[in-house]
Amino acid sequence: MLRADLLPALGRLIPADRLLTRPGALAPYEFDGLTAYRARPCAVVLAESAEEVIATVRLCHQARVPFMARGSGTSLSGGAVPIEDGVVIALNRMNRVLRFDPDARLAVVEPGVVNLAVTALAAPHGLYYAPDPSSQSVCTIGGNVAFNSGGAHCFRHGMTANHVLGLKVVLGDGTVAMLGGDSLEQSGPDLTGLFVGSEGLFGVALEITLRLVTRPAVYRTLLAAYDSLQRAGDAVSRIIESGLLPGAMEIMDRLAMDAAEAAVHAGYPADAAALLIVECEGEEAQVAAEFDRLMRIITVSGATHTRVAADEDERARIWKGRKSAFSAVGRLSPDFIVQDGVVPRARLGEALATIEALSRAHGIRVANVFHAGDGNLHPLILYDGREAGAHDRAEVLAAEILRLCIRLGGSITGEHGVGLEKRAFLGEMYSETDLACMRRLRDAMDPHRVANPGKKLDPSFETPASHGLHPLERAGVISRA
Which domains does the chain have, with CATH numbers? Predict the structure, then answer.
């Protein structure tokens, strides 16, 4: 099939009201949560069934036209930015629960099902879906699978990969495959784990089998205030060293607290430089014992103030403040970059002190919100895009933070993925042998490289020119091979 034949072929497959080609209709699909990147596709397919997705992928493969699957577009790494003149397969209408078995504690869903809707379905049965990204009220399970999303409670419960038992997928060449199953006890290579986090480079998930977990009998949620970010980070190290395994540990700095307070009135302390949120969960006797140990650690950690949530309403208010932090930072700055690096937990305090120093050196404000339990940093780098060069200066600071994470023995991403934003740093984190293995896997799944090309892998391997010059190239921080 020739490229020119693709749109007529799609027109025969998809009703006209679900095949978008007009510029005005395409505009909302040009970017994702990382708005610095944008590109215009030639068409958007509003898919309503697995059969339509499979047929669209096969047409794109035959015509050698790149495609990208998209859910709610909440990616913060540019992973859901389309390819210029490619096809977007929008999956939001594929939002059916295909099977729900509370006794087996699993749900089979289509990729357009919203994350929080799974927990809403399971709650009457004393169950819930554990991965809880901040965007869980709008992000879709398909997007969570693509980027291996985590959330505040991933420290104890793990990432999306730990809660996906099986997948029905269509690979980049149009092959339909079943990966995994509906049991934790599986044999052979972990192909499900391979697909989760592949950022669309292998193909599209059509059906996703999720593991549900029992809701804890008791939650106890603690706020501890500190006079510096480093002290809060060191407190996390103390908790980890003690052997405690809380359900969640989160840190917010003063800027992030101010934004959250203005947005949702969470009741955070007004005079703290940093806030640590720790939540214990489980059976009542277990939580009581763990919480007593936790309080002893917090007492000697230098906390200036502590508060325990008195009831479920107060607990919900605390978490609402934390989960609204990203969007609330828009009250502090017209634009910001969210980074997603990881450092070893033992070096968390050092990393936070260094980020504060980098912020001062660059003269750019940084609001810090992150999953302290697994060392996953989310520094929000604030800038005003109306100022000439402001975005590029913010990108330079973001690059220094990523390189700090690598230097401390961490990673360039914890849950947001590599996408467009961080692909140039893969070569600094992995050896050429590692990268060659990634490329071989990519080509095995999608020999024509039509599935979301230009994402995740280093630019020297595949970079559609439509995505333009990377901001770090303009700033002279990186160069293409």
Answer: 3-90 (3.30.43.10), 97-214 (3.30.465.10), 218-407 (3.40.462.10), 423-474 (no CATH)
